[in-house]
Every structure is written in structure tokens, then in C-alpha cells.
Design goal:
Length: 275
């Protein structure tokens, strides 16, 4: 699928590294077909030492030979990078952006280029357990669609959606989701310490409980409400705890948090999501 493909990462941070790792682990490409660019030579050298990829501090140089150009800079840096790269992306290349909120129209106009994927991965991609939601512009070919699917599939699970608003919604749910889950885990660990467990034991109990519950829900395909009912005996401990959690507004506050993240995504993207 990716034979004769060369990938350039413009922005060599955490997510770029996760993608490089995934692509190499899946043996989709050899390291010398990957080039990473960013302002710090130390970071380029670090990626070269870890993965054997090539690097440069000149973004234009990275994209000049690429068939897939991954935009993996922070949203605030994107306008500058688009201006810098305008007219330099090879005509046959696919541009794959993971920049939160950045609409396809903004990238297309900024680069004067038509084949664009907009994707929202999440940080579990670093261990191959990511969830990526993506969409693709009308200007992309079937081959480019398959290439994007292969690259994003190397990060974990991926879903192709038909509109950019779904990518914005996914940014708030799965893209930002690990932050909610980690906060929940941290709060549970603290609750365990409050009970009297050592931090080490509390952390082990919470991590395995969260992991086990997720695997159980995924493998059994039983709705979480039903799984929760199975743990909740009449007059038992779960019923008592759930009563307090509901009284404290756990569902409402979670829903408000996700909604706020969605609004923030729309603001970051200038709410310009037409294709
Ligand atoms: N982290 C997440 O959970 C997550 C999930 C999904 C999508 N995303 C998206 O992924 C993108 C990257 O996020 P990240 O977490 O990987 O951030 P990051 O670790 O800060 O990576 C951004 C990289 O861009 C580099 N950079 C800065 N200015 C540049 C320029 N002018 N040209 C080229 N590179 C430049 C930075 O270099 P320096 O460090 O030297 O400044 C850094 O290495 C963001 O747009 C974010 O919205 C992130």
C-alpha cells in the first residue's frame, strides 16, 4: 500500500513521534522513507537516533520529496507553516493534517493544494491503541484514501466520517477523551489513598480496573449501563456510591466538559468547516 511512498512530518512533537512509531511497527515503510522537520535540531537528532528517520530544520526541504505530508504542528503555528509551504507541496502528494480545529478549507487555501485528509487521533496512539476519526477532501484519489487509512490504522482504530463537523465532535470526545479518563483515574487513585492504600497499590488497583472494564465492555459488546447494573446489587456498595456520584452531577459535568471542548475546537478552527 505504501510502497514507493515517502512521508514528511512537519512538526516533530509527541503525535508525530506516535505516528512514526506506528508506521514503523506496522512495517508500512522503511525509516529512510520518513523525514521529520521542526525548529530544533536536537529533536530531529533524537528521532533519528530512536527510529532511524531522516530530519531537517527546513520544512520546505522535508515536503519537497514527499508523497504524504503530515501537518503535526500546534494550531497556533499552523498559519505560519501554511504560508511558508504554499506552492511547495508536490502536486501528487496527500496532505494529512492532525491539527485540532483546522478546517480542510483553511489548509486547501493556505497550501493551494486539493488532496487533504483531516484527522483527529488521540494520545493512546503512542502505544498503538489510539482512536482516530478522519475525513477526506473531494480532491483526493482512491489510492490516497487507502494510504491515509493505512497510516492512521497504524495508530490503532480509525473511522472515516463524511463531514468535518464529525471530526470536531470527535475532537471533543475521543481526541480530548484521554484527558477525561486520566483525570477520572487520578481522582480514583486519590480516593484510594484517602481510604488508606499506598499510592502504589491504589494506582495498580485503579489502572487494572479501568483497563479491565474497557476490555470487558469492548469484548462483551454489552452496553455500559447493563454492565453497571450487573455490579449494582440492591442496597449494596455500588448503589450507595452511584447515588452519591449522580447527586454530585457526574453525568452533567462530563457532558458540559465535552460540550466546552467542542466549542473550543470550533473557536480554534475559526468555525470555518465548509469543504
Ligand atoms: N496531543 C494530543 O492529544 C493530540 C491529539 C490529537 C491531535 N493533536 C494535534 O496534533 C498536533 C501536534 O500536537 P502535539 O501534541 O504533537 O504537539 P507538540 O508535541 O508540541 O508538537 C508540535 C511540534 O511542532 C514543532 N514546531 C513548532 N513550530 C514549528 C514550525 N514553525 N515548523 C515546524 N514545526 C514546528 C514543535 O517544535 P518545538 O517543540 O521545538 O517548539 C513540536 O515539535 C496539534 O495540532 C494538536 O492539535 C494532538
Amino acid at each position: 500500500m505504501l510502497e514507493n511512498t515517502a512521508i514528511a512530518f512537519v512538526g516533530s512533537g509527541v503525535m508525530a513521534e506516535a505516528m512514526i512509531k506506528g508506521v514503523l511497527n506496522q512495517k508500512l515503510l522503511l525509516p529512510d522513507r520518513i523525514i521529520a522537520s521542526g525548529p530544533r535540531a536536537e529533536r530531529g537528532q533524537q528521532l533519528a537516533d530512536r527510529y532511524g528517520v531522516r530530519w531537517t530544520v527546513v520544512n520546505k526541504e522535508a515536503v519537497s520529496q514527499a508523497s504524504i505530508v503530515v501537518l503535526s504542528v500546534k494550531p497556533q503555528v499552523l498559519p505560519k507553516v501554511l504560508t511558508e509551504l504554499q506552492g511547495t507541496v508536490p502536486a501528487h502528494a496527500l496532505v494529512l493534517s492532525i491539527v485540532a480545529g483546522a478546517a480542510i478549507a483553511v489548509i486547501r487555501n493556505g497550501l493551494a493544494h486539493d488532496a487533504i485528509v483531516r484527522a483527529m487521533p488521540n494520545t493512546p496512539a503512542q502505544v498503538g491503541a489510539g482512536m482516530t476519526v478522519w475525513t477526506i477532501s473531494d480532491g483526493a484519489s482512491d489510492l490516497q484514501r487507502s494510504q491515509a487509512q493505512a497510516v492512521l490504522g497504524a495508530l490503532g482504530e480509525e473511522i472515516l466520517v463524511g463531514d468535518e463537523n464529525s471530526v470536531d465532535m470527535a475532537t471533543a470526545l475521543s481526541g480530548t477523551g484521554p484527558a477525561y479518563v486520566f483525570l477520572f483515574m487520578e481522582a480514583l487513585i486519590d480516593a484510594g489513598v484517602h481510604l488508606g492504600f499506598s499510592r502504589r497499590i491504589a494506582q495498580k488497583l485503579v489502572l487494572q480496573t479501568v483497563l479491565g472494564s474497557a476490555v470487558f465492555a469492548k469484548e462483551s459488546q454489552i452496553h455500559p449501563a447493563e454492565l453497571r447494573n450487573m455490579v449494582t446489587s440492591p442496597g449494596g456498595t455500588s448503589a450507595e456510591a452511584l447515588y452519591q456520584l449522580e447527586k454530585g452531577g457526574l453525568r452533567t459535568v462530563l457532558s458540559r466538559g465535552v460540550w466546552a471542548a467542542y466549542q473550543r475546537t470550533r473557536t480554534l478552527g475559526g468555525n470555518n468547516n465548509e469543504r
